[in-house]
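Please go through the sequence line and token line underneath and see whether the fold suits the sequence. See right below:
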Amino acid sequence: MADNVWKELAYQAVRQVAERQQELTPDDIWATGLEKPLEARALGGIMRRARADGLIEKTGRVQPTTQRESHSADITVWRSLIYLAPDN
């Protein structure tokens, strides 16, 4: 089980990615440099929390993960509800 410090770091990583990207996947969260806990599936609970808090929503699409240890398993593509479009 991931500890509370990791959970907060993971949640903040999800928030930051959701502010920068219109769509995101767990791979985008790992790409921030977030350290993986013993059970990487712990990120699923963080994504559910972000959805419950209104940060993201499911798109209904999946794509293969880029995480080698997950052997191309399908992961959810999420839509950001807090995307901050760059000023032009």
Notes: The chain has one domain: 4-80.
